[in-house]
Amino acid sequence: MREFSGNSRITEPKLLFSAQNPGAVSIHPLEGLLSFGPFSQNLGGHEFLETIRIAAIYPEGCYQTIRNLISELNNNHQPVERKGYLKQYPGFKSVFKKSLDLLDEQNCLSLPVNLIKNVPLPHIVLSQELVKAIRQMSKFILEFDVLYIYLPELWNSGFQNSEEGFDLHDYLKAITASFRIPTQIIRENSAIKYRCRCSVAWRLSIATYVKSGGIPWRLNTYDEDTAVIGLSYAMRMDAVTDKPQFLTCCSQVFDSDGTGLEFIAYQADEYSTQGENPFLSRYEMRRVMQRSLELYLSRHPGRTLKRIIVHKTTPFKADEIEGCFDAFPNTQIELLQIKQSTPWRAIKLDYPKQVSNYPVNRGTFLQVEPNEILLWTQGLIQSDNWSFYKEAKGIPSPLHIVQFAGSDSWYEHCNIIMGLTKMNWNHDAIYDRLPVTLGYATTLASTLKSLPKLGNRPYEFKFFM
């Protein structure tokens, strides 16, 4: 039996919805959008556009299906699920201050309905035809802002191939990223036939707004001297030898307010493996960190970073630690391993030591070793007269965080991680379990497995959402 000195708790991070109004804050992303509108509504560039134009690829005869979906996004909906959290959706223009329009049918593109009927390799045929359609649409890229690709269940035999490790969603994202086309994959069951149209409207509208170049919210904190980097790896195995063929390293850089910049990916030549986990050499880690720094400074010319925080899911080996310090001389470096899997659990007790009907509060953290803590990014949120438990049932599992280098307090690290769990713009939820540094990096790595030769240049994450 072990006894701990006690636990601490991070208050729920607030989101900011205006660059001009510091009072435009809320812990609830949907409430914030309804009360204040999106963060970028009064900024230049993207916000000069009054209309977001949608192009579409779909099966023959399904243009009206897409038109009906766009019509739904422009109309009002009441929630029929997650009523403790989900808010009434008042229509795209009411929330985002922009119109949402679908291009005429002659400016979209249709494919035969029976495209993969009775073909021996449906995933190859479907992916090839979709790539042809995407290539054709790329010729008119200045005519639209976001490309919707409708995949009906009739084509589901071509969505995956387990033997080849093929996933159509990841493949299409990699292809459209290479064309620099923001896309929204529309699945029949999750978008067209899903019972809660309010939920569909919120999720699709937020994603569409971001993919068109908008910023819905940021964290209500900002430290221009700090950047946070998320690392992940995509390893391709040789089908014959079952040994690694090559390793693609993914790195995404975030501002301290949770705004993702761009990400870089490149093939690493010097690495070792332990089980399924790759570890970079000192040279390779220095290279990826230097490129990450270059990416940050190219977006913030003249700025000097004083603190760099690096997140990854595997331990930092000695060579990787040295590589980070090589890349960032005279800079405070914080290296954190964030593990999802841990046997630790906790229950909440009410006075006097009775088991509560509610789970541990989100933001609770507990130090278990000098350089290790447990942080509950799932759990009960309590604010004023409102409380919410996203998972609805079960005992939430904490993240196990190990510090391999750095001097920041655990409170500081937990506060940053908690904030970054609220910065996924690809859904309408109040938080994710993982911070976006790792959630996004994992998504990128998965996509790169489908198309490893993506090109040696920075990419915005909106192409992979």
UniProtKB/TrEMBL annotation:
What SUPFAM superfamilies does this protein map onto? Ribonuclease H-like (SSF53098)
Signal sequence annotation: none
Q: Which InterPro entries does the record associate with it?
A: RNaseH-like_sf, RNaseH_sf
Query: Which GO terms fall under molecular function for this chain's record?
Result: nucleic acid binding
Stretches assigned to coiled coil: none
Name-wise, this protein is Piwi domain-containing protein
